[in-house]
Amino acid sequence: MLLNFATDTANAIPLHVVEADGLNDALAELSAFQQNWTVTQGFKAGLGQVVAIPDADGAIAQVLVGYGTADSRARGRFHMGGIAAKLPDGVYQIASGLAGAVLEEAALAWLLSQYKFDRYAPCRATDAQLVAPDAIDADRIAIIANGEALIRDLINTPASDMGPQELEDAARALAAEHGAKMNVTLGDELVKAGFPMIHTVGRASSRAPRLLDMRWGETGPQLTLVGKGVCFDTGGLNIKPGSSMGLMKKDMGGSATVLGLAHMIMGLGVPIRLRVLIPAVENSIDGDAFRPQDILMSRKGLTVEINNTDAEGRLVLADALTLSDEDKPELVISMATLTGAARVAVGPDLSPFYTDSDAHAAAISDAARVVADPVWRMPFHAPYEAMIEPGIADLDNAPKGGMAGSITAALFLRRFIESPYIHFDIYGWQPTAAPSRPKGGVGMGARAVLEALPKLLNL
């Protein structure tokens, strides 16, 4: 679905955002009738409170929205999205109370609150529409919102309709929309082209594995995005229990996120050369499935001992990262729903990321705060390198012991790349509904990266 601001602005209802300590000043701007009405409704400007004030004919003349205190707002984000969901149908215009980055976040939150995944069942559309505030770049906010909607749509679609072919179709549609070029290496051609681990992970599925390669832009520094595209993960021969397999349609959340980010970058015309690499596979069980204790050869020439076929994401990413390194980009960023250990460490709301560059880490962390896309830096902890070295091969895909699982996975990936590198170990799923984020697929880290690009690439 397309998210956008209201186009009919003639009769927009003014909306005044009131902080708790500004309530008396706000009341002073009202008539005696309006003051009495507001007080009678119990409005105290608490976060999320809404009071619609009628005119003499009973129609809504204006709306007061409670914005609470700084402490209450710090306990969440996208508060305006929650407010939009409480308003009657109509067109609204933020008349006072917000400015700068806070106003931009509010506008984005409002658009994202309209998102509905309605492919399989009808959903009531949110008809509380917002007029784009004059002080924001409305086109930019809409492009970002629709990049996020793309991420959500791709993750929310079940594997029956989002296998490697359908993921390729989505990438091709995005490339066509923005005039990008696409190349796909399919099935057994992966072996001939030098991507043995992508082929090995996906060969047991009836749906052929593939590597998607999109390029856009002719000038500027090169950014390469690599997204994990495991469209469903049974765990392979180390099969997951049912309780762990239930959400595995989202194991392509990294690929969804880089495609959504690519939409933002291309839609905004960021002056870079963009490359997007997605190893798209399904980790299935068949007579041709790879096995525990197999030793695989990678594109880079490093050998990998398989100690768990359920640690497959790092295998397909490794071949793609090696390819990304070959044309010496200024920066490579990988995004993947890679480890449960990351969720244990930081929960579902934070995007853990790894980088050796303090400057890159600061740029992303600062940008994340500006755009309300929370991240947390994790360490490439060198003393753990020994944990990923099994002795009979160069690398172990699943070190025993269960310690530092997200870190060891990141260290594994770093072995396959020499270019400046940032890795995100995201969750890609909103477990319970929150303002502007319904339960289901969700973008993580993409908006922070977009905001940080000027510093990351010296634009």
From TrEMBL:
Tell me the Gene Ontology biological-process terms attached to this UniProt entry.
Answer: proteolysis
Q: Matching PROSITE patterns, A to Z?
A: CYTOSOL_AP
Q: Which UniProt keywords apply?
A: Aminopeptidase, Hydrolase, Manganese, Protease
Q: Which residues form the Cytosol aminopeptidase domain?
A: 308-315
Q: One Pfam family name from the record?
A: Peptidase_M17
Entry-linked InterPro entries: Leucine_aapep/pepB, Macro_dom-like, Peptidase_M17_C, Peptidase_M17_N_1
What GO cellular component entries does it have?
cytoplasm
Instruction: Give GO MF terms, alphabetically.
Output: manganese ion binding; metalloaminopeptidase activity
Family affiliation: Belongs to the peptidase M17 family.
Q: What is this protein called?
A: Leucyl aminopeptidase
What is the taxonomic lineage of the source species?
Answer: Bacteria, Pseudomonadati, Pseudomonadota, Alphaproteobacteria, Rhodobacterales
